[in-house]
Amino acid sequence: MAAELDHVPEARRGHFAFGCLVVAVRERLTSPQFLNAAARSLLIGGAVAWAALNIRFAGRMSVSDAIVLEAFGYIIATMFAVGALATARFGYRATITLAAPLMAVLAVTAALIRFGSVATPTSSLYLALVVEDLLVLACALLVAGAAARIATARQAIR
What we know:
By secondary structure, the chain is mostly helical. 87% of the residues lie in helices and 0% in strands. The chain has helices spanning 2-5, 13-29, 32-63, 67-90, 93-116, 121-157. It starts with a helix and ends with a helix.
């Protein structure tokens, strides 16, 4: 592009330079390396943030002497922290390996809470917590799966 700049009329050089910048940024943003790094960063950051929110929830439950809710918050926080570490160490495919079985367990738990117990405010809270975790894990699976497909497709093209 630098060699072509000498052949661009003086009045069009700013437009040409902007076009070069757009092409360079687009190429970088669609590179498999960038997509992998962005997906891993999003998954790790999201898992750490969700773990922190669950720790905060568990701390608030300890004040109200809700020991089971407190334990639930700490267990979920631990699972998401382990997921963040695994994703950092082994890549975003670790997210798929860890999230799928956890989603199955949480789905069974949600079904048991919903259909196997009497509807109380506490059971509704448990159900809401489980559904939240299921939605967060579903988002993580979408990000990890999309990143895997896009990176594989881009590498096949090159």
